[in-house]
Amino acid sequence: MIPIAKPNIGKEEEQAVLEVLRSGYLVRGPKAKELEEKFSGYVGRKFGISTSSGTAALHVALIANGVGKDDEVIIPPLTFFATASSVLFCGAKPVFVDIDPDTFNMEVGKIEEAITPNTKAIMPVHLYGQPVDMKPLMEIAGKHNLKVIEDACQSHGAEYEGKKVGSFGEASCFSFYPTKNMVVGEGGMVLVDDQDMKMECTLLREHGEITTYEHVLLGYNYRMNEIAAAIGVEQLKKLPGFIDKRQENAKRLTEGLADVEGIQTPVIGNNGTHVYYQYIIKVTKEFPLSRDELVRYLTEKEIGARPSYPKPLSEQAILRTMGMAADCPVAREVLFEMMELPVHPLVSNDDITYIIDTVREVSRMR
Ligand SMILES: Cc1ncc(COP(=O)(O)O)c(C=O)c1O
Question: Is 177 in the pocket of ligand 1 (CB under 6 A)?
Answer without folding.
Answer: yes
